[in-house]
Design brief:
2-enoyl-CoA Hydratase, Chain A, domain 1, six-stranded mixed β-sheet, Enoyl-CoA_hyd/isom_CS, four-stranded mixed β-sheet, 10 helices, about 230 residues, 10 strands, ClpP/crotonase-like_dom_sf
């Protein structure tokens, strides 16, 4: 199941199947997408319950699939919803992230991990691979060399190696603190910064939009900018 808690400017979305290491069934994917899609908070923290972040797809469900392509597309839609959300989505990786769990984290805007985190794409060992957008996002984030070695080996990396590879941006004791601190920033700035850094259009269009976004923020916050200059 997916549990949602709204705490002021922060929404916490928790995958809550600890007995299955938070593995996701098709119904869970639908619920997760809805929890992200209807968020009003400027920042969303995605985390798992118990000793794992997310083990990816529930293999019992995968074994019974009549339409595996539809299931892959479903996972892709969830990842796209995370990436395209107007909220900043923070993956708080505490414990094991495997397969689809890694792919959902890759779709998040920020990935932080505790020292207990481990990450892996073990699908190659059972004749599968990451099909929730992982083949697109992984090389974009860690580079083609790391992406190939990580996916083709099926090995598990610890938190320190994940940081070195760029899979996560930093190691923290409690991901909640990171998300809560981010939610204290000016909300329109968060949204526009995400839009600009996520923009996949050509450079000229991105630069135009960047300048327009800066101008809009400047007009909205000119008094605060002047005050900061005087301090």
């Amino acid at each position: 199941m997916i549990r949602t808690t709204d705490d002021g400017d922060l929404r916490v979305v928790t995958i809550e199947r600890p007995e299955r290491r938070n593995a996701l069934r098709p119904t869970d994917l639908d619920d997760l997408r809805a929890a992200i899609d209807d968020a009003d908070a400027p920042v969303v923290l995605l985390r798992g319950s118990g000793p794992a972040f997310c083990a990816g797809a529930d293999l019992d469900s995968v074994a019974e699939l009549d339409d595996p392509e539809a299931f892959a597309r479903q996972g892709q839609r969830v990842a796209d919803t995370i990436e395209q959300s107007p909220s900043v989505v923070v993956a708080g990786i505490d414990g094991a992230a495997r397969g689809g769990g890694v792919e959902l984290a890759l779709a998040c805007d920020v990935r932080v991990a505790t020292p207990r985190a481990t990450l892996g794409e073990p699908g190659v060992r059972i004749g599968l691979f990451g099909a929730w957008g992982g083949t697109v996002r992984l090389p974009r984030i860690v580079g083609e060399g790391h992406a190939l070695e990580f996916s083709l080996s099926g090995r598990v990396v610890d938190a320190d190696e994940a940081l070195q590879m760029g899979l996560v941006s930093r190691l923290v004791d409690d991901p909640y603190d990171v998300a809560a601190s981010m939610a204290e920033n000016e909300h329109q700035s968060l949204r526009i910064i995400k839009e600009r850094l996520r923009d996949r259009s050509d450079d000229e269009a991105r630069l135009d939009a960047e300048a327009s976004g800066f101008a809009a923020l400047h007009r909205a916050n000119v008094d605060d900018i002047a005050t900061s200059r005087e301090e």
